[in-house]
Structures are given as C-alpha cells and as structure tokens.
Design brief:
6 helices; 98 residues; single chain; mainly alpha; 63% helix; 0% strand
Length: 98
C-alpha cells in the first residue's frame, strides 16, 4: 500500500476527512499568512514579525515562501508594493487582523 493510500485509510478511521485543494483557492492566504503578509507589507523584518507573533524567524520565512507562491510574487519588495486589498476577501481579512 502506498503512503498516500495508507494515510487516507488512517484518516478515515479517525472520522476526519482531508481537505481537497480547489484550484480556484490557490491565491487564498491562511489567517497566519495574512497576518504575516500584513506585517511584512508594513516594512517589518522577519525578526520583527516573528517577535510580534511569537514565532521563530524561520517559521516566518516558511510562511513568506508560501505567500510568495500563492500571490505569484518573488520578493518582499513586491509584497510591499502589491495591493493585498485587490480582492474583497483579502481586504476584509486584513481589516479583521488590524
């Protein structure tokens, strides 16, 4: 049995289900990613963001890589310049995090 099949069997046994990734949701950020994107977008360093969110700087780096991939950007400068408020969902989420 392949790893993925075994994992699916074990997951079903617990009564939980795996979330299917809908291709239309690729650009959606998690609440943690939104918070990090907002703080980095304000010009904070990874170290500053980590301190504010009680995370390690490496965890912030990890989330930034995921944010960059989801938003189709390649740098902090692009994140700072990008308008995360373009999509209504993100605007509301960012406002809720403020």
């Amino acid at each position: 049995m392949h790893w993925a099949e075994r994992a699916a069997v074990e997951l079903r046994a617990t009564g939980e289900t795996a979330r299917k990734r809908d291709p239309s949701t690729v650009a959606q950020l998690t609440p943690q990613e939104l918070q990090i994107a907002r703080l980095v977008g304000e010009g904070n360093s990874n170290k500053d963001v980590a301190a504010q969110l009680f995370l390690s700087p490496r965890t912030v780096e990890y989330h930034l890589r995921k944010i960059f991939a989801k938003l189709g950007i390649a740098s902090r400068a692009e994140l700072i310049r990008s308008s995360l408020a373009d999509a209504g969902d993100r605007e509301n989420a960012l406002a809720a995090l403020s």
